[in-house]
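Bit of a strange request maybe. I'm writing a small parser for structure token strings and I need a real example to test against, not something I typed by hand. Could someone generate the tokens for this chain?
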Amino acid sequence: MSGTARLSPEGKRGKQLSGFDRLLAKFFTGTHRNILKLTGSRVMSRMGGNEIGILTTTGRKSGRPRSHPVITVPDGADRLIVATNAGAANHPYWVRNVLADPKVELSLRGTTHRMTARVVGPDEKRELWPRLVEAYRMYDTMQNKTDRDIPVVRLSPA
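Reply from user aminoacidic:
Good idea to test on real output. This should exercise your parser:
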């Protein structure tokens, strides 16, 4: 799917992330990731009743591993994640990394799983969205903050 999937254009409505915003996000994301790793996902591992995992992608420019805490919603053997970026006008960097290289890892409860990531198409997103919002109400709030189409990513066991 790499090379064929496309992201919607970035939005004009929604917070435009400054360099300082990105620095703060990097600090808080790194702190959260480290707490999850150090505690084997026993602390700060749920949000809105959903399990938080650590998604590791390959940086599309650096080629280095990049890890991000993400809310996961189970869908059979797959996991769904939503690239909200808290409703910002910009897509999160990790979703761009997924498009460049769909081979990812997802750590849940201290166990790492090799997965293949795919940005779902518009029809599949329309079908999944009500379930995702039921699992985590803030997804609708975040989508309403921005005019970009927030991507949904399906992680399937590799």
